[in-house]
Every structure is written in structure tokens, then in C-alpha cells.
Amino acid sequence: MQETSTVELAYVPTTADATGALRERVRATPAGRLQSGIILASAIVVLDALVVNFTGPKGPSLRSTVLCLAALALCVGVYVLVPVLQGRQVHRMVALQGEFRAVVDDTGVRLTSRMSETAYRWPMITRHAETDALFVLKTPDKHSVGIVVLPKRGVVEPADAERLRAILDRNATGV
Fold first, then answer.
1. Which of 62, 107, 147, 163 is 20 to 30 A removed from 139 (C-alpha atoms)?
2. Is the dihedral of CA 66, 68, 72, 74 positive or negative?
3. Whole-angstrom Cα distance, residue 20 to residue 39?
4. Counting beta carbons within 10 angstroms of the beta carbon of residue 144, is it exposed (0 to 12), middle (13 to 18) or buried (19 or more)?
5. Could you report the per-residue pLDDT of 40-83, keeping only the tens digit for each?
């Protein structure tokens, strides 16, 4: 007979939770990896242009240098700031609901807040990832349209995090 256990979490969502979950989603989806690759490729092209600017026969051009540095700052800004700005938007939506309570067991995940109650069975969340601060549960589609965020700080005892990890590993694929 398979071991059954239940882990309960209680937490107030933060902007960092939303941002961390979105960063994990970017890392795990084809569209997110493509977006990161395009930003990285753009930064490399800009750096190449900067090198050409400084090593050209006429010497560095102030206009080209400023343009390249601005483009490089834009690339870095998009890579760093977009998940933060999106995380703030997501947090604004969920913050109104106050404290969340989650119950995770071998049947699925149940989330309850002041304004909502949602149950997910395991066929709906077939994949999971772990960050330093979060467990991020994902829908089976390749774009992870739906995610469930479970902050590790929501568990009562450190052993609960280990039990939660075991439940997730039994019922969803780690990515």
C-alpha cells in the first residue's frame, strides 16, 4: 500500500513569489527559452558592434558607443525587469485575496483564500519544479499556461517541505 500524507501550507503571496514562479516558467517553456535566447543573441550582437566600434580604423565614435551602450542596457533591462514587472502585476491580482491555505496530498492540491477555493487533481498539474524559495506546479501543456505556486515558507516545519517534495515526486514529474 502506498504511503499517504498531507502537507498544509499557509502564506501571504509576495511579489517575489510571483516573480520567482514566472522566472521558472520562462526557464521551463519553449517560448520562454526562445525569449531568453533572443535577448542573449541581441546582447551579443550589440557587444560585437561595440568591439567593432572600438577596433575600427577610424577609432571609436561617441555616437556609436552611446548607441551600443544604450542597446546593451535595454537588453539587460528587458532580461531582468520584465519578470519583475510581470510579477508585480500578478501579485496585484492575488494580493487582494489575503492569506492562502494550501492542502497537498495524493489526490491533488486545494487552495483556499478569502475569495476563492480551487482544487487541482494531479492530471491537471503533471509537472513541478523547485527553486530556493518555491515549489512551482505546472499544467501538462508545453507552455505551462497554468501554474500553482507553493512558497516553502508556508510549511509549518522543515520536515513538511520534505514530505511535500515526496508527494510532488510521486504524483508529478520534476523538471
1. 163
2. positive
3. 19
4. buried
5. 999 999 999 999 988 888 888 889 999 999 999 999 999 888 88
Reference 128, options 159, 93, 166; nearest CA is 166
Question: HEC profile for 45-70?
Answer: HHHHHHHHHHHCCCCCCHHHHHHHHH
Mean of pLDDT values over 98-121? 95
Written as nine digits, the cell of 39 is: 535577448
Outline where the chain has alpha helix (H): 15-28, 30-55, 62-95, 158-171
Residue 37 amino acid letter? G
β-partners of residue 119 are: 110
* Residue tagged 510521486 (cell numbers): 170
pLDDT tens sequence across 9-23: 999 999 999 999 999
